User: Which sequence fits this backbone?
């Protein structure tokens, strides 16, 4: 659970500072925007970002997807399993190549090549294949709510938050539904296998 909280602390914030170290930027075309659909499920966000990653490198694969906590406080944030703002991370297996697509208000806002010369290569086991994502955030949120232990955040990490990453220890594409306990004192997460929909207790 501590690991989940640390990851959320790190990734639920905007990455505006990323542009400072960006060595590569793509001009985002209107064809990659989704008209009149500001809220995206995690799978929709990945599908929106993927063409840009493949334009960056034809061997790019998905590393991680997580929403960004930019919404103003409200009762319905994430309650349909969708969010407006996302960070979608890609890499090239067995290299240190890393590419970030940031989505704001349901459309691609900017892209950044964050490849670091001193970073370690990303092993193949850390990547997620698109064909293996069979369950999306809206349906897995419904499962999490039936469990009765997750409530929407009010002031920070607002509403329900979503993250997809590879659990390399269990070789699972882990989709996390993240919220709070009933009195807003502790973050809670329900994990699911994105390939089977099975509940998986987060590490």
Assistant:
């Amino acid at each position: 659970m501590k690991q989940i909280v640390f990851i959320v602390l790190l990734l639920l914030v905007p990455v505006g500072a990323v542009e400072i170290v960006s060595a590569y930027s793509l001009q985002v075309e209107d064809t990659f925007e989704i008209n009149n659909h500001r809220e995206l499920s995690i799978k929709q966000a990945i599908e929106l970002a993927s063409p840009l990653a493949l334009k960056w490198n034809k061997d790019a694969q998905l590393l991680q997807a997580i929403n960004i906590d930019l919404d103003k406080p409200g009762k319905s944030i994430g309650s349909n399993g969708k969010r407006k703002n996302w960070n979608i991370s890609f890499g090239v297996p067995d290299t240190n190549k890393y590419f970030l697509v940031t989505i704001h208000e349901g459309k691609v806002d900017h892209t950044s090549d964050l490849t670091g010369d001193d970073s370690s290569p990303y092993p193949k086991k850390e990547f997620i294949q698109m064909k293996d994502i069979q369950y999306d955030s809206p349906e897995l949120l419904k499962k999490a709510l039936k469990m009765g232990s997750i409530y929407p955040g009010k002031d920070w990490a607002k509403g329900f938050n979503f993250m997809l990453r590879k659990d390399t220890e269990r070789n699972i594409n882990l989709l996390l539904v993240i919220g709070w306990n009933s009195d807003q004192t502790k973050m809670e997460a329900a994990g699911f296998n994105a390939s089977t929909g099975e509940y998986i207790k987060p590490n």
Q: What stands out?
A: Residues 95 and 121 are 4 Å apart (CA to CA). The chain is about 20% helix and 25% strand. Residues 5-11, 13-36 have pLDDT under 50 and may be disordered. The helical segments are 2-11, 18-21, 42-56, 137-147.
